[in-house]
């Protein structure tokens, strides 16, 4: 540990450059992931702007509980089934997965096609943790 502090003291400029690159990488990843919404923000977007909920979990997980009126297109099929979303191109699309991590790539894919895609922070785990309503069919 002493050697680490000695290295940092002797090569502060190198550590500074490394820190700048790390910050740039984190910023870039955040920009690619798209805007993240809390459950409250997602609810407002659904109620006030008629947002569409796109659940990218597999059919089994979707059947165990999902947001009302959610469209289920598993991530593995999203590229092939994106045309199904063309009627919703003018509306915000809230992407939902299990934990909120998988939706980053789906959001990037949709935004490249001109969709206004945002992601639900924490995914269905956060939605369920807050005891918000789900549909089980």
| Helix share, percent | 40-55%
For the termini, the CA-CA separation is: 56 Å
Catalogue the unreliable spans.
none
Query: Approximately what portion of the residues adopt beta-strand conformation?
Result: 5-15%
Tally of helical runs: 7
Q: Judging from the principal axes of the Cα atoms, what is the shape?
A: elongated
Characterize the biggest β-sheet.
5 strands, parallel
Work out the radius of gyration. 19 Å
The counted number of beta strands is: 5
Structural class from helices and strands?
Answer: alpha/beta
- The overall pLDDT, averaged over residues, is 90
- H/E order of the elements? HHEHEHEHEHEH
Strand order of the largest sheet: 1-5-4-2-3
Walkthrough of the structure:
The protein is α/β, with parallel strands linked by helices and 137 residues long. Helices cover 50% and strands 13% of the residues. The protein is built from seven helices and five strands; from the N terminus they run H-H-E-H-E-H-E-H-E-H-E-H. The protein has helices at 2-10, 12-33, 39-49, 59-64, 78-81, 103-112, 123-129, and strands at 36-37, 52-55, 71-72, 92-96, 116-120. The protein has a five-stranded parallel β-sheet. The longest helix is centred in the N-terminal third of the chain and has 22 residues, at 12-33. The chain starts with a helix and ends in an 8-residue tail after the last helix. The model has no long low-confidence stretch (mean pLDDT 90).
């Amino acid at each position: 540990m002493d050697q680490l502090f000695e290295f940092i003291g002797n090569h502060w400029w190198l550590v500074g450059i490394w820190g700048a690159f790390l910050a740039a990488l984190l910023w870039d990843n955040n920009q690619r992931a798209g805007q993240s919404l809390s459950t409250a923000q997602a609810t407002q977007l659904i109620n006030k702007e008629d947002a569409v909920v796109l659940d990218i979990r597999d059919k089994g997980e979707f059947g165990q509980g999902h947001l009302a009126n959610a469209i289920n297109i598993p991530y593995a099929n999203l590229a092939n089934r994106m045309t199904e979303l063309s009627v919703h191109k003018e509306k915000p699309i809230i992407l939902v997965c299990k934990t909120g991590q998988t939706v980053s790539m789906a959001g990037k894919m949709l935004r490249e096609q001109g969709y206004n895609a945002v992601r639900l922070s924490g995914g269905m785990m956060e939605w369920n943790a807050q005891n918000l309503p789900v549909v089980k069919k």
